[in-house]
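Bug report (template v2)

What were you trying to do?
Predict the complex of my protein with FE2/S2 (inorganic) cluster.

What happened?
Run completed; filing so the output is reviewed.

Input:
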Amino acid sequence: MKGNMSSHDLGAADAIVKKYDNPRETLIAVLQDLQEEYGYLPREVLERVSESTGIALSHLTGVASFYAQFRLNPPGKYKIMVCLGTACHVNGGERVADTVARHLGIAEGETTQDGLFSFETVACLGCCSLSPVMMINGQVYGKLNADKVKKILDDIRGSENA
Ligand code: FES
């Protein structure tokens, strides 16, 4: 992903909006469809939807920001999902999430400036016996502590810079 400058096919956004008789009343569903199409909610797509529906852009971004399911930034090359399900929560999931955020300098839902990492939290990745757990692009890392988390992230960054 090359940051926010990439241009998107806005025809797909138009087609999605047209499926709905009253997009204002079904805004969540519209945004879900848009996110499925684009992988996140690019600003230019929301601008287009604002133009075509008359819904204020500030309202669209406000709703999108309010619900954790929506992303306003492109996901990173490495998508980190930190588990905060019950088992992971009990065994230090918050510490894992905190370490990821601090080490990368991003909050949940954000993407690093270089586009390498994005980070979100999820409820149960289905491997509770390994808690606390995080998944990066489908690979599970378990029995984590702060040092392990930092090393995993550093190793990935190192492999990218090699
Ligand atoms: S609670 Fe984290 S994997 Fe199940």
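What did the reviewer find?
The radius of gyration is 18 Å. The longest strand covers residues 78-83.
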